[in-house]
Amino acid sequence: MPPPPPVEREEPEEPEEPEELEKPKQPEEPEDDDGDGFRLRFGSTLGGGIIESPTGTGAVFSLSARLGFQFNHHLGIYYQNTPMVTLTPESTANSAGFEAGFIDYNSLLASFTVFHVIDLGAGPSLDYVAVASCGTEIPGISLEIPEAGCESTSAWYFGAHARASLILGGLTGSGPRRSGFAISADLHPVFLPEGPTITFTLGLGSEWY
Fold first, then answer.
1. What's the burial of 88, exposed, middle or buried (CB within 10 Å: 0-12/13-18/19+)?
2. What is the mean pLDDT of residues 185-207?
3. Is residue 22 in some structural domain?
4. pLDDT tens-digit profile of 86-114?
């Protein structure tokens, strides 16, 4: 008998590689927004500028301190105390003198901060104004001795304050507090009975906000 024909063996098929399962997407964590949050704010400024009063224009030197709250990176509220000394020359056709004063601004300001570096504030103020006026009459043809003397007054008046500052700094650490070197400009009218007195000052200082 002839031998049986050889049986062809079927090679086993290679198992198909399982398709990679798509990994479920992890929910994105919300951004920290630079650690924004409620905190205290404070600062100080040394400045100088001009004063425009009903009796003339003079020089002013000021020192201000601020303390308040920062609700977030954009909104805040603070109290600013600004003691200053002023010196205003006074002269007429027949007299010469000067007016020296001490003014203390007590301002409550609402602030708005843009791009972390531009801080704008405005609000009402209750101001203490003390002024000493000294002068002497200039004699003409008369041989009489000119009269000289000083008068002083002091009282509380209402005012308003506006402040703009450029703060050169940034965020510190991982928390919400920012700090920097501040270049500021302050405008303040005081409403006196004889007319408004306006001071404009430029200052250098520091800010923690």
1. buried
2. 95
3. no
4. 988 866 555 566 788 899 999 999 999 99
CA distance 154 to 85: 14
Is residue 26, in this structure, part of any structural domain at all? Answer: no
Q: Residue 150: give its domain's CATH number.
A: 2.40.160.20
Please state the domain count of the chain. Answer: 1
Q: Does 30 score more than 50 pLDDT?
A: no
**Average pLDDT of the chain, as a whole number:** 82
Assess if residue 57 is contained within a domain: yes
Residues 6 or more apart whose CB falls under 8 angstroms from that of 191 comprise 157, 158, 159
> Phi/psi zone of residue 173: left (φ > 0), alpha (ψ -120 to 50 degrees), beta?
left
The answer to whether residue 100 is domain-embedded is yes
Tokens at 172, concatenated: 């510190």
Greater pLDDT, 177 or 9 = 177
Domain extent for 178: 38-208
